[in-house]
Amino acid sequence: MKKNDVKIDVKKLNLWYGSKQALQDLNIEIYENQITALIGPSGCGKSTFLRCLNRMNDLVSSAKIEGEVVIDSKNIYDKDVDEVSVRKRIGMVFQQPNPFPKSIYENVAYAPLKHGLVSKGKECDALVEKSLRSAGIWEEVKDILTQPGTSLSGGQQQRLCIARTIAVKPDVILMDEPTSALDPISTEKIEALMLELKKDYTIVTVTHNMQQAARIADMTAFFHLGDLVEYDETETIFLNPTKQKTEDYITGRFG
Amino acid sequence: MANFTPIKKKEKNIFYDPNLSKRHAKAKIFKGIAISALIMSLLFLFIFLSDMVNKGVGAFKQTYIQVEVTYNAKTLKDTRQLIERKYRTLISRAWLRDIPRLVKENPELMNTTQVVWALADDQVDMYMKNQYYKIRPKHKATLLELIENNRVEKHFNTIFFTKGDSKIAENSGILSAMIGTILTLLVTMAVAFPIGVATAVYLEEFADPNSKLSSFIEININNLAAIPSILFGLLGLAIFINLFGMPRSSALVGGLTLALMTLPIIIVSSRAALRSVPASIRQAGYGLGLTKIQVVRDHVLPLAFPGVMTGSIIGLAQAMGETAPLIIVGMIAFIPDSPTSILDAATVMPAQIFTWAGMPEVAYIERTAAGILVLLSVLISFNAFAVYLRKKFEVKW
Question: Can you give the residue range of the structural domain that contains A203?
Fold first, then answer.
């Protein structure tokens, strides 16, 4: 497989929650326009790592971070970088669908309006439609845009959340177990959507579902106890892992 | 079918629990205690309310007597001469005193004689309501004759709702106390609501929960809630009146004093409301690159709004019933005329009730009860409004 350009270059990343070290000396390169899956048992640090990529861990007062996360040749942990503007370019989708308790339209339009990406009116309407289309939910909601986002089904809510993220025009979309709260049919839709979205975005996703990683990810990283054990093309990780731990985990011997 | 073996009739019950009847008895006793406690509290409430209604409902009707009034220069100078001598003690002095003003407003009455319904003296009113009364036999005979001729009637008591306090029982009303209460609560809300909500937002959203400063603030808020209300009155007296020189007995001072008392209630309930907003909403906001202010103002606060409002209204209702601190800052004054600004001397409804409760005249007793009824109905409508707000703005998940 042809290697794409490096989008995110993580160098010697360490993270502590209080005195407990949650991530140890992580080095990983994430490639542009690919889906990178992070797998590993619960508490291995994969979600924590994901949250380092858009500085969400800054919200946890006990978290202390060392190392570099270089995105487009700029370390986002440099002193002159504002974490809010980082999150504008690195969007995030969460485990539980969490639409704002506002209308479907406002869910999508709120952040772009606040960021000044579009002005109110036709421009905003167009962006909302485009984002909802990209998230594959336009046909289902185009007649009910004024209804609350929370009235949709779980799978629809999650796609609405993806539309909301896309609307801010990020480069990278981080997904923290985006399908673990959804039924298989909704999951399938989200997976198809992710494959569609990787043409335009770089996607990093955390998943507990090994089949999902195998199905959609180009690269897979296996985490264990805050260590990056193995990182390679998905095929290699699943068919021919070099580390014993990876093989044990993938074959279901622990985790 | 062939292998089917019928169950023996006296099969042992494998679910048999030897303590079952004991457990049921215990549950019954527990339930009984809970229900009797409920019945007790309902009974007390019922007794209190029915007693108040019983005593107070009479005050909503007032006795009037039909008499001839002669308006001329002489009678207007000495208002006692407006009516026939034999009726004088039966008619309210306050009503007679008010006539010259009436004539000034309606000059065409001058030099005429009219038959009007005149406000009766409180003793006549008490007699009509079968209460304890003091009327001389001579005057009582006149009264009985008037009753015979259907010249005594009970009308709806508009005076109670349109006048302030008075030393003449039949002329006293609750209006000035109501306006005083409204002005005081406006000051209280204007001060306590923004400060309380802002404090709660700071403590919940911005402050580091582990810092010494926030735990210091937290301890102080809890202390504030535990301070006896009369001490707030002393604080108000010392700071607002003596130090800042604000006018004594004014709604401004009373409102500020009550604001100090209401603050902890608003802070605590607003914090609880903010805390109940799911973290996922904040995460969603931050994940979209929104600033903290945008997330709090546009997403967290609207969700917390019903809880904040409920807490504030309950705090306000409590402030409304508060008397002790207001006595200290002088809001128990005798206020016949309604205050027109927050700087005027004013009194509040509970203080008015307190004043009337101490009056020797029997007529004030029913006014006390009626005042309590008015206060209670305002309080109940406040609480109902709080419930309505919560239901209306509650977001379903």
Answer: 6-250
CATH of B175-393, one of 3.40.50.620, 3.40.50.300, 2.40.10.170, 1.10.3720.10: 1.10.3720.10
Q: How far is A232 from chain B (nearest CA, A)?
A: 28
Q: Which of residues 278-297 of B touch A (CB under 8 A)?
A: 278, 280-291, 294
In angstroms, the CA B291 to CA A48 distance is: 21
Q: Looking at the complex, does the CB of residue B210 fall below 8 Å from at least one CB of chain A?
A: yes
Residue A183: exposed, middle, or buried by beta-carbon count in 10 A (0-12, 13-18, 19+)?
exposed
Report how many Cβ contacts below 8 Å link chain A to chain B. 64
Contact (Cβ atoms closer than 8 angstroms) between residue B267 and residue B217: no
pLDDT at B361 over 80: yes
State whether residue A17 sits within 8 Å of chain B by CB.
no
Q: What is the pLDDT of residues A220-229, one digit of tens each?
A: 999 998 899 9
Asked if residue B183 has pLDDT above 80, the reply is: yes
Q: How many domains does chain A have?
A: 1
A185 in contact with B at a CB cutoff of 8 Å? Answer: no
B396 in reach of chain A (CB within 8 A): yes
Q: How do beta strands A172-176 and A90-93 pair?
A: parallel
Predicted confidence (pLDDT) per residue in B91-132, tens digit: 998 888 888 888 888 888 888 888 999 999 988 899 988 888
Residue B287 Cα, gap to closest chain A Cα (Å) = 5
Check CB contact under 8 Å for A111 and B290: yes
pLDDT in tens, A141-160: 999 999 999 899 988 999 99
Bridge partners (DSSP) of residue B156 are B61
Interface check A99 vs B, CB under 8 A: yes
Q: Which residue of A has its CA nearest to B394?
A: A101
The total of other beta-carbon atoms located within 10 Å of residue B244's CB is 10
The complex's ipTM?
0.88
pTM score of the predicted model: 0.81
Measured CA to CA, the distance from residue B144 to residue B275 in angstroms comes to: 69
